[in-house]
Specification:
The complex is a heterodimer.
Chain A lengths: L18 E2 L2 E5 L2 H18 L2 H15 L5 E3 L1 H7 L3 E6 L9 H15 L3 E6 L3 H13 L2 E7 H6 L1 H9 L3 E5 L6 H15 L3 E3 L10 H24 L5 E5 L4 H7 L9 E9 L15 E5 L1 E6 L24 H8 L4 E6 H15 L5 H13 L8 E6 L7 H9 L6
Parallel strand pairs in A: 4-14, 5-6, 5-8, 6-7, 9-10, 9-14, 10-13
Antiparallel strand pairs in A: 1-2, 2-12, 3-4, 11-12
Chain B lengths: L6 H11 L4 E7 L5 H13 L4 E5 L10 H12 L4 H14 L4 E5 L1 H7 L1 H11 L3 E4 L4 H6 L10 E2 L1 E3 L5 H9 L5 E4 L15 H9 L6 E4 L5 H9 L3 E4 L1 H10 L5 H17 L2
Parallel strand pairs in B: 1-2, 1-9, 2-3, 3-4, 4-5, 6-7, 7-8, 8-9
Helix pairs in contact in B: 2-4, 2-12, 3-11, 4-6, 10-12, 11-12
Classes of the chains: A alpha/beta, B alpha/beta.
Amino acid sequence: MTATATATPLPVMPDQHGHFGRYGGMFVPETLMSALNELSEEYERAKADPIFQTELNRLLHEYVGRPTPLYLAERWTEKLGGARIYLKREDLLHTGAHKINNALGQALLALRLGKQRIIAETGAGQHGVATATVCARFGLDCTIYMGAVDMARQALNVARMRFLGAKVVAVTAGQATLKEAVNEAMRDWVTNVRDTHYILGSALGSHPFPMMVRDFHRVIGVEARQQILEREQRLPDLLVACVGGGSNSIGLFHPFLNDPGVRMIGVEAGGEGILPEKHAARFQGGRLGVLQGTKTWLLANDDGQIELTHSVSAGLDYAAIGPEHAWLHDMNRVEYNYATDEEALAAFSELSAVEGIIPALESSHAIAEVRKVAPKMGKDQVIIVNLSGRGDKDVAQAARMIFKEEIKF
Amino acid sequence: MSAPANRIDTRFADLKASGKRAFVAYVAAGDPTLDATIDIVLGLERAGVDIVELGVPFSDPLADGVVNQLAADRALKAGATMPKVLEMIRQLRVKSQIPIVLFTYLNPVYTYGYERFHKDAAAAGADGVLVLDLPPDEVVQNTELKPTPELCHIQLIAPTSPPERIASIAKSAEGFVYYVSRLGVTGAQVEIASGIAEQVQIIKGSTQVPVCVGFGVSNPEQAAKVASMADGVVVGSAIVKLIEKNGASPDVAEQVEAFVKPLVDAVHAL
């Protein structure tokens, strides 16, 4: 089942009010409206300001480590026996994942806004680490909200954030994962909005976040496009990326959206299978709704209460998908599949053993999809998969699940 | 655009005629049970409360402090759903004509169906609705959220609302304007916020509807002081906290009545 893009270019999204078709928007309490409007205006100014862009690009190069390599995974390609597979190595960035592209951009914006206090939510801890890192770099006060369950499964990242000078606040409400951390960060923001900037970590939440986070991650796709043209003298046949909120995937996909021959697959967390409360695959049994500032596709019951979710990867364990993905799904421009915990763990092991690259459990969902589709494709075809983060943070959990061994930090 | 005269407008007209200010009380519907909520609302009415805000529970109440979050959790665990809350209001209407505002988040309303919610809530006997995460901007931009005349749409104004937003929100206000007196989530505070009187005057410059002030009011002195600066005061978390402590007690409604009476008296004495 291949989604084919039409030759007509897709309309530019979002509109000025942050809507991606019927999705997106600004569904927040009145207290936040003026801060969000101020943020939108300042972001537009920064985007058009060559000094801001030059500073951002300089830091992305010198501090963050851009551009990242596009690496041909030869042994893995041979093993799967189909399309040539390139890995976009976001795992090699400073702090170990793509998240710092956005954290850096938003920290520079906070400085422009004169806000000295930063808050953020984190699931797997990668966005928290990236935010704590840029706060240390610019001398900003930093508070990270993290679900207590995620703190337990990502203890290494909690320690990293603390070394970086951040205060990590455990959130115990509900199922104590990413969604609850966002609620708590929003509550902090509502209370301290005058001197605080909220660095939201995914292409989610109220406008302007889905657009702004996407724009800060577009560099992934812009680089990949140039790199593959240099290497293969042609565009890829397929892009694959995992989708929690959807920041790494939208960053890779966006610069290719108007290339009709490029197929794209977003991979959601299938958890223990598509059963109520056992997964986080919003396009499998989800519905249209409004959560945490945006209208999008989400997992809720018939009464509109948000359902529990499950994924082996904390970064994909979230009930709503970014609004632009919901729109791209409607437009049939991007296909959305899912990988189960078991498939992700098998992919984690395979890439580690065959390529000497340990992927994050989030990225392992994209790796798992490639294992399914690459063998069915021709040897002359090309896949780019976004290796959005490295797996160091997941080693203890994976050892427990794969080797049945406990590793303590 | 104002809704047809309903219980909220009538109550404010009566208060104005007698020179009194409004006391608005918030409780979470279904905490500890929906049956208990009926008794609690009747207790509030006996205490002299003018308008009741009933929280329709949502799993992710991001504008609420911990007291109201826990109340929503208890209500959901006790089985409260939108249809059951509306059925409870229908039963309550047999015994009481107190004005009722439903206080909730968009997702439960949206999932029920925005238009269907308005029709059914009005038919059950609700008078107004306050959707915390639905700013007026989105109502204009989403055809599926088109304004419906069955209920008064209560709007929030915050200390961070700039003058041009205050003017546009106030101008289209229905029922009353809820001025959030301080930044933050719902919950009782030791100190009341500053600058309330000035902000209320600015709001009143743009609207004919009454202005009520809430967020953080918990005792008779605060209630009287806040109400003196506006047309009414909203008290929520302090009552919810009492219900949290005494929910299992058979006379929880009487306890709520006894707690709220001195607050109402202090406001009505102004």
